[in-house]
Amino acid sequence: MEAAKVVMNSEASSLMLLDESTGDLNVSIPTGPVKDEIMGMRVPKSKGIGGWVISYNQPFISNDVVESDIFWKDLSTGFTTRNIICVPLQDSKGNAFGVLQAINKKDGKSFENEDVPVFESLALHVSSAIERSKRYDEIEETLKERDMQMMEIHHRLKNNLSMICGLLEFDLREVEDEKYRDLLSSTNSRIRSVAEAHSLLYDQRDSEKLELSRYLTAIAQNVEKVFDTSEKDIRLNIQLEEITLDPNRSMICGLILNELLINAYKHAFTKKNAGEVVISLKQTSKDKLALIVTDDGVGFNVKADTKSNRPHGKLIIESLVNKLNGTIRYNENSEIGSTCFLSFPV
Fold first, then answer.
1. Cβ distance 83 to 65 under 8 Å?
2. Distance CA 191, CA 116 (A)
3. Which residue, of 83, 112, 141, is where some domain finishes?
Protein backbone atom coordinates (compact mmCIF):
# COMPACT_ATOMS: atom_id res chain seq x y z
CA MET A 1 0.00 0.00 0.00
CA GLU A 2 2.96 2.30 0.53
CA ALA A 3 4.01 1.35 -3.00
CA ALA A 4 0.54 2.29 -4.28
CA LYS A 5 0.96 5.72 -2.76
CA VAL A 6 4.39 6.14 -4.35
CA VAL A 7 3.36 4.85 -7.78
CA MET A 8 0.32 7.14 -7.91
CA ASN A 9 2.20 10.04 -6.25
CA SER A 10 -0.71 10.45 -3.83
CA GLU A 11 -1.12 11.63 -0.23
CA ALA A 12 -2.89 8.47 0.87
CA SER A 13 -3.98 5.02 -0.28
CA SER A 14 -6.28 2.35 1.07
CA LEU A 15 -7.18 -1.26 0.56
CA MET A 16 -10.79 -2.16 1.36
CA LEU A 17 -12.05 -5.73 1.41
CA LEU A 18 -15.59 -6.96 0.95
CA ASP A 19 -17.34 -8.51 3.94
CA GLU A 20 -19.28 -11.27 2.18
CA SER A 21 -21.78 -11.64 5.01
CA THR A 22 -22.87 -7.97 5.04
CA GLY A 23 -21.70 -6.60 1.71
CA ASP A 24 -19.88 -3.77 3.52
CA LEU A 25 -16.36 -2.68 2.64
CA ASN A 26 -13.83 -2.89 5.45
CA VAL A 27 -10.88 -0.46 5.50
CA SER A 28 -8.19 -3.12 5.91
CA ILE A 29 -4.90 -1.36 5.09
CA PRO A 30 -4.91 2.46 4.88
CA THR A 31 -1.87 4.73 4.52
CA GLY A 32 -1.57 8.47 4.90
CA PRO A 33 -2.03 11.04 7.67
CA VAL A 34 -5.20 9.55 9.24
CA LYS A 35 -4.47 5.84 8.68
CA ASP A 36 -4.66 4.91 12.37
CA GLU A 37 -8.01 6.64 12.78
CA ILE A 38 -9.77 4.98 9.83
CA MET A 39 -8.23 1.50 10.18
CA GLY A 40 -11.07 -1.05 10.48
CA MET A 41 -13.86 1.39 9.58
CA ARG A 42 -16.68 0.17 7.38
CA VAL A 43 -18.29 1.67 4.31
CA PRO A 44 -21.94 0.54 4.09
CA LYS A 45 -23.02 -1.64 1.21
CA SER A 46 -23.27 0.21 -2.11
CA LYS A 47 -22.12 3.49 -0.54
CA GLY A 48 -19.42 5.74 -1.91
CA ILE A 49 -16.94 5.33 -4.73
CA GLY A 50 -15.60 2.03 -3.35
CA GLY A 51 -19.13 0.63 -3.27
CA TRP A 52 -19.72 1.70 -6.88
CA VAL A 53 -16.41 0.17 -8.08
CA ILE A 54 -17.04 -3.20 -6.43
CA SER A 55 -20.69 -3.25 -7.56
CA TYR A 56 -19.87 -2.56 -11.22
CA ASN A 57 -16.40 -4.18 -11.13
CA GLN A 58 -15.00 -1.17 -13.01
CA PRO A 59 -12.30 1.43 -12.28
CA PHE A 60 -13.32 4.98 -11.36
CA ILE A 61 -11.55 8.37 -11.47
CA SER A 62 -12.81 11.64 -10.05
CA ASN A 63 -10.78 14.84 -9.85
CA ASP A 64 -13.55 16.69 -8.05
CA VAL A 65 -15.26 14.31 -5.63
CA VAL A 66 -17.51 17.05 -4.19
CA GLU A 67 -19.22 17.24 -7.57
CA SER A 68 -19.48 13.45 -7.88
CA ASP A 69 -22.89 11.92 -7.26
CA ILE A 70 -21.45 8.69 -5.87
CA PHE A 71 -18.99 10.16 -3.33
CA TRP A 72 -20.25 9.37 0.17
CA LYS A 73 -18.10 11.20 2.72
CA ASP A 74 -14.64 11.47 4.23
CA LEU A 75 -14.07 8.86 6.94
CA SER A 76 -12.10 11.38 9.04
CA THR A 77 -12.62 15.07 9.72
CA GLY A 78 -8.83 15.40 9.63
CA PHE A 79 -8.57 14.56 5.95
CA THR A 80 -10.35 16.01 2.92
CA THR A 81 -10.60 14.00 -0.27
CA ARG A 82 -9.94 16.14 -3.34
CA ASN A 83 -9.53 13.56 -6.08
CA ILE A 84 -9.38 9.77 -6.21
CA ILE A 85 -8.58 6.78 -8.39
CA CYS A 86 -10.19 3.49 -7.43
CA VAL A 87 -9.87 0.05 -9.08
CA PRO A 88 -11.37 -3.33 -8.16
CA LEU A 89 -9.42 -6.20 -6.66
CA GLN A 90 -10.40 -9.32 -8.60
CA ASP A 91 -10.01 -13.02 -7.89
CA SER A 92 -8.84 -15.56 -10.48
CA LYS A 93 -12.38 -15.74 -11.89
CA GLY A 94 -12.62 -11.98 -12.32
CA ASN A 95 -15.00 -11.42 -9.39
CA ALA A 96 -14.41 -8.27 -7.31
CA PHE A 97 -13.66 -8.88 -3.63
CA GLY A 98 -12.26 -5.48 -2.68
CA VAL A 99 -10.95 -2.16 -3.98
CA LEU A 100 -7.63 -0.34 -4.17
CA GLN A 101 -7.68 3.47 -3.83
CA ALA A 102 -5.16 6.29 -4.22
CA ILE A 103 -6.34 9.63 -2.85
CA ASN A 104 -5.24 13.21 -3.55
CA LYS A 105 -2.60 13.43 -6.25
CA LYS A 106 0.28 15.49 -4.89
CA ASP A 107 1.21 19.00 -6.08
CA GLY A 108 -2.43 19.71 -6.90
CA LYS A 109 -2.29 17.49 -9.97
CA SER A 110 -5.11 15.36 -11.38
CA PHE A 111 -5.41 11.64 -11.96
CA GLU A 112 -5.43 10.82 -15.67
CA ASN A 113 -6.90 7.92 -17.67
CA GLU A 114 -3.33 6.77 -18.34
CA ASP A 115 -3.01 6.10 -14.59
CA VAL A 116 -5.71 3.42 -14.69
CA PRO A 117 -3.76 0.54 -16.34
CA VAL A 118 -0.77 1.26 -14.08
CA PHE A 119 -2.97 1.13 -10.97
CA GLU A 120 -4.80 -1.96 -12.25
CA SER A 121 -1.45 -3.69 -12.73
CA LEU A 122 -0.58 -2.97 -9.10
CA ALA A 123 -4.05 -4.15 -8.04
CA LEU A 124 -3.40 -7.43 -9.87
CA HIS A 125 -0.30 -8.04 -7.72
CA VAL A 126 -2.25 -7.17 -4.56
CA SER A 127 -5.11 -9.49 -5.57
CA SER A 128 -2.70 -12.36 -6.25
CA ALA A 129 -1.03 -11.88 -2.87
CA ILE A 130 -4.40 -11.89 -1.08
CA GLU A 131 -5.58 -14.99 -2.96
CA ARG A 132 -2.37 -16.84 -2.08
CA SER A 133 -2.86 -15.86 1.55
CA LYS A 134 -6.45 -17.12 1.48
CA ARG A 135 -5.38 -20.42 -0.08
CA TYR A 136 -2.67 -20.77 2.55
CA ASP A 137 -5.26 -20.16 5.29
CA GLU A 138 -7.60 -22.72 3.73
CA ILE A 139 -4.82 -25.29 3.51
CA GLU A 140 -3.81 -24.56 7.11
CA GLU A 141 -7.42 -25.00 8.23
CA THR A 142 -7.68 -28.28 6.31
CA LEU A 143 -4.49 -29.51 7.98
CA LYS A 144 -5.85 -28.54 11.39
CA GLU A 145 -9.04 -30.48 10.68
CA ARG A 146 -7.00 -33.47 9.52
CA ASP A 147 -4.87 -33.31 12.67
CA MET A 148 -8.02 -33.18 14.80
CA GLN A 149 -9.40 -36.23 12.97
CA MET A 150 -6.10 -38.08 13.42
CA MET A 151 -6.10 -37.22 17.12
CA GLU A 152 -9.63 -38.60 17.43
CA ILE A 153 -8.57 -41.80 15.62
CA HIS A 154 -5.56 -42.23 17.94
CA HIS A 155 -7.79 -41.58 20.96
CA ARG A 156 -10.37 -44.16 19.89
CA LEU A 157 -7.75 -46.75 19.02
CA LYS A 158 -6.05 -46.24 22.37
CA ASN A 159 -9.36 -46.67 24.20
CA ASN A 160 -10.38 -49.74 22.20
CA LEU A 161 -7.00 -51.43 22.65
CA SER A 162 -7.00 -50.60 26.36
CA MET A 163 -10.44 -52.20 26.64
CA ILE A 164 -9.13 -55.37 24.99
CA CYS A 165 -6.20 -55.41 27.42
CA GLY A 166 -8.61 -55.02 30.30
CA LEU A 167 -10.62 -58.02 29.09
CA LEU A 168 -7.45 -60.09 28.72
CA GLU A 169 -6.40 -59.20 32.26
CA PHE A 170 -9.85 -60.20 33.49
CA ASP A 171 -9.52 -63.56 31.72
CA LEU A 172 -6.04 -64.08 33.17
CA ARG A 173 -7.58 -64.37 36.63
CA GLU A 174 -9.41 -67.51 35.50
CA VAL A 175 -6.41 -69.20 33.82
CA GLU A 176 -4.49 -71.59 36.03
CA ASP A 177 -2.27 -73.22 33.41
CA GLU A 178 1.07 -71.39 33.44
CA LYS A 179 1.62 -71.94 29.71
CA TYR A 180 -1.64 -70.24 28.74
CA ARG A 181 -1.14 -67.51 31.32
CA ASP A 182 2.21 -66.70 29.64
CA LEU A 183 0.57 -66.65 26.20
CA LEU A 184 -2.19 -64.30 27.33
CA SER A 185 0.26 -62.08 29.20
CA SER A 186 2.50 -61.82 26.13
CA THR A 187 -0.46 -60.99 23.90
CA ASN A 188 -1.64 -58.40 26.41
CA SER A 189 1.81 -56.81 26.47
CA ARG A 190 1.98 -56.59 22.65
CA ILE A 191 -1.42 -54.93 22.45
CA ARG A 192 -0.45 -52.47 25.17
CA SER A 193 2.69 -51.58 23.19
CA VAL A 194 0.55 -50.53 20.21
CA ALA A 195 -1.96 -48.75 22.46
CA GLU A 196 0.85 -46.78 24.10
CA ALA A 197 1.96 -45.44 20.70
CA HIS A 198 -1.54 -44.15 19.95
CA SER A 199 -1.73 -42.65 23.43
CA LEU A 200 1.51 -40.71 22.91
CA LEU A 201 0.48 -39.57 19.42
CA TYR A 202 -2.77 -38.25 20.89
CA ASP A 203 -1.04 -36.49 23.80
CA GLN A 204 1.68 -34.80 21.75
CA ARG A 205 -0.73 -33.41 19.09
CA ASP A 206 1.67 -34.43 16.30
CA SER A 207 0.97 -37.49 14.19
CA GLU A 208 4.11 -37.15 12.05
CA LYS A 209 6.74 -38.03 14.67
CA LEU A 210 6.87 -40.07 17.84
CA GLU A 211 9.27 -39.53 20.74
CA LEU A 212 10.95 -42.93 20.50
CA SER A 213 12.78 -42.69 23.83
CA ARG A 214 9.56 -41.85 25.67
CA TYR A 215 7.70 -44.62 23.86
CA LEU A 216 10.30 -47.29 24.60
CA THR A 217 10.40 -46.23 28.24
CA ALA A 218 6.64 -46.70 28.50
CA ILE A 219 6.89 -50.16 26.89
CA ALA A 220 9.67 -51.24 29.25
CA GLN A 221 7.69 -50.11 32.28
CA ASN A 222 4.60 -51.90 30.98
CA VAL A 223 6.45 -55.20 30.50
CA GLU A 224 7.95 -54.82 33.97
CA LYS A 225 4.47 -54.33 35.41
CA VAL A 226 3.07 -57.40 33.62
CA PHE A 227 5.92 -59.88 34.21
CA ASP A 228 7.67 -58.72 37.36
CA THR A 229 6.94 -60.87 40.41
CA SER A 230 7.63 -60.61 44.10
CA GLU A 231 9.69 -63.79 43.85
CA LYS A 232 12.46 -62.14 41.83
CA ASP A 233 14.16 -58.74 42.00
CA ILE A 234 14.73 -57.73 38.37
CA ARG A 235 15.75 -54.12 37.87
CA LEU A 236 15.38 -52.06 34.70
CA ASN A 237 18.19 -49.68 33.74
CA ILE A 238 16.93 -47.42 30.93
CA GLN A 239 19.49 -45.31 29.04
CA LEU A 240 17.82 -43.74 26.00
CA GLU A 241 18.90 -40.78 23.90
CA GLU A 242 16.13 -38.36 22.94
CA ILE A 243 15.23 -39.43 19.40
CA THR A 244 12.11 -38.93 17.29
CA LEU A 245 11.00 -41.30 14.56
CA ASP A 246 7.95 -41.77 12.36
CA PRO A 247 5.10 -43.57 14.20
CA ASN A 248 5.10 -46.74 12.08
CA ARG A 249 8.79 -47.47 12.56
CA SER A 250 8.56 -46.44 16.20
CA MET A 251 5.81 -49.04 16.80
CA ILE A 252 7.86 -51.77 15.13
CA CYS A 253 10.88 -50.85 17.25
CA GLY A 254 8.63 -50.87 20.32
CA LEU A 255 7.29 -54.33 19.51
CA ILE A 256 10.85 -55.63 19.12
CA LEU A 257 11.78 -54.26 22.54
CA ASN A 258 8.58 -55.76 23.93
CA GLU A 259 9.59 -59.24 22.67
CA LEU A 260 13.16 -58.92 23.94
CA LEU A 261 11.98 -57.91 27.40
CA ILE A 262 9.37 -60.66 27.54
CA ASN A 263 12.12 -63.16 26.71
CA ALA A 264 14.37 -61.67 29.37
CA TYR A 265 11.74 -61.72 32.11
CA LYS A 266 10.53 -65.22 31.24
CA HIS A 267 13.82 -66.99 30.50
CA ALA A 268 16.94 -65.03 31.44
CA PHE A 269 16.60 -65.32 35.23
CA THR A 270 15.29 -68.87 35.66
CA LYS A 271 18.26 -69.72 37.89
CA LYS A 272 18.65 -66.36 39.59
CA ASN A 273 16.50 -64.46 42.07
CA ALA A 274 17.83 -61.04 41.11
CA GLY A 275 19.27 -59.34 38.07
CA GLU A 276 19.35 -56.32 35.83
CA VAL A 277 18.16 -55.54 32.31
CA VAL A 278 19.87 -52.58 30.61
CA ILE A 279 18.14 -50.88 27.67
CA SER A 280 20.14 -48.44 25.53
CA LEU A 281 19.10 -46.37 22.53
CA LYS A 282 21.59 -44.24 20.64
CA GLN A 283 22.21 -42.72 17.24
CA THR A 284 25.37 -44.39 15.94
CA SER A 285 25.60 -42.31 12.74
CA LYS A 286 23.66 -39.71 10.81
CA ASP A 287 21.22 -42.29 9.46
CA LYS A 288 21.57 -45.24 11.88
CA LEU A 289 20.02 -46.04 15.27
CA ALA A 290 21.00 -48.78 17.68
CA LEU A 291 18.83 -50.44 20.34
CA ILE A 292 20.78 -52.60 22.79
CA VAL A 293 19.19 -54.85 25.42
CA THR A 294 21.54 -56.55 27.91
CA ASP A 295 20.76 -58.80 30.87
CA ASP A 296 22.98 -60.48 33.45
CA GLY A 297 20.93 -63.67 33.50
CA VAL A 298 21.59 -67.11 32.04
CA GLY A 299 21.13 -66.18 28.37
CA PHE A 300 18.22 -66.77 25.99
CA ASN A 301 16.33 -69.98 26.43
CA VAL A 302 13.16 -69.47 24.45
CA LYS A 303 10.94 -72.43 23.73
CA ALA A 304 11.50 -73.71 20.17
CA ASP A 305 8.81 -73.73 17.50
CA THR A 306 8.19 -77.44 16.79
CA LYS A 307 7.68 -76.91 13.03
CA SER A 308 10.84 -74.94 12.33
CA ASN A 309 12.85 -75.94 15.40
CA ARG A 310 13.72 -72.23 15.79
CA PRO A 311 13.02 -70.08 18.84
CA HIS A 312 9.47 -68.76 18.51
CA GLY A 313 10.31 -65.38 20.10
CA LYS A 314 13.25 -64.89 17.75
CA LEU A 315 11.05 -65.61 14.73
CA ILE A 316 8.76 -62.76 15.71
CA ILE A 317 11.72 -60.46 16.34
CA GLU A 318 13.40 -61.29 13.03
CA SER A 319 10.15 -60.63 11.15
CA LEU A 320 9.86 -57.21 12.79
CA VAL A 321 13.54 -56.43 12.17
CA ASN A 322 13.02 -57.12 8.45
CA LYS A 323 10.24 -54.53 8.41
CA LEU A 324 12.76 -51.99 9.70
CA ASN A 325 15.36 -53.04 7.12
CA GLY A 326 17.61 -53.58 10.11
CA THR A 327 20.04 -56.18 11.43
CA ILE A 328 20.10 -57.94 14.76
CA ARG A 329 22.69 -60.06 16.51
CA TYR A 330 22.83 -61.88 19.83
CA ASN A 331 25.71 -62.55 22.20
CA GLU A 332 24.72 -65.27 24.65
CA ASN A 333 26.62 -66.58 27.64
CA SER A 334 25.11 -68.68 30.40
CA GLU A 335 27.64 -67.26 32.87
CA ILE A 336 27.39 -63.52 32.24
CA GLY A 337 24.03 -63.16 30.48
CA SER A 338 23.16 -62.01 26.98
CA THR A 339 23.17 -58.94 24.77
CA CYS A 340 20.97 -58.17 21.80
CA PHE A 341 22.15 -55.49 19.35
CA LEU A 342 19.59 -54.06 16.91
CA SER A 343 20.72 -51.61 14.22
CA PHE A 344 18.34 -49.98 11.74
CA PRO A 345 18.22 -46.93 9.45
CA VAL A 346 16.47 -43.73 10.49
1. yes
2. 69
3. 112
Rounded CA-CA distance 175/184 in Å is: 9
- For residue 202, how far is the Cα from the chain centroid? 11
| Confidence (pTM) | 0.57
Task: For residue 300, give the CATH number of its domain.
Answer: 3.30.565.10
d(C-alpha 113, C-alpha 340), whole Å: 82
Q: Which domain holds residue 67?
A: 2-112
Asked if residues 210 and 245 have their Cβ atoms less than 8 Å apart, the reply is yes
Region of residue 23 (left: phi > 0; alpha: psi -120 to 50; beta: else): left
Do residues 196 and 157 lie in contact, with contact meaning Cβ atoms separated by under 8 Å? no
Helices 178-204 and 247-263 cross at an angle (nearest 10°) of 150
| Closest of 232, 233, 235, 239 to residue 216, by C-alpha | 239
Q: Are strands 25-31 and 210-211 parallel, antiparallel or unpaired?
A: unpaired
Q: Is the dihedral of CA 62, 66, 72, 76 positive or negative?
A: positive
Residue 142 DSSP class = H
Given a contact cutoff of 8 angstroms between Cβ atoms, the answer to whether 336 and 294 are in contact is: no
Amino acid at 22: T
Identify the domain boundary among 82, 112, 142. 112
* Residue 26 CB-density burial (10 A; 0-12 exposed, 13-18 middle, 19+ buried): middle
**What would the pLDDT profile of 246-258 be if each residue is shown by its tens digit?**
888 888 898 899 8
CA atoms within 13 Å, Cβ hemisphere of 199: 16
Domain count, the chain: 2
Host H or E run for residue 7: helix 2-7
Segments of 45-173 assigned E as strands = 60-62, 84-90, 96-105
In tens, the pLDDT along 113-152 reads 999 999 999 999 999 999 999 899 988 888 888 878 777 8
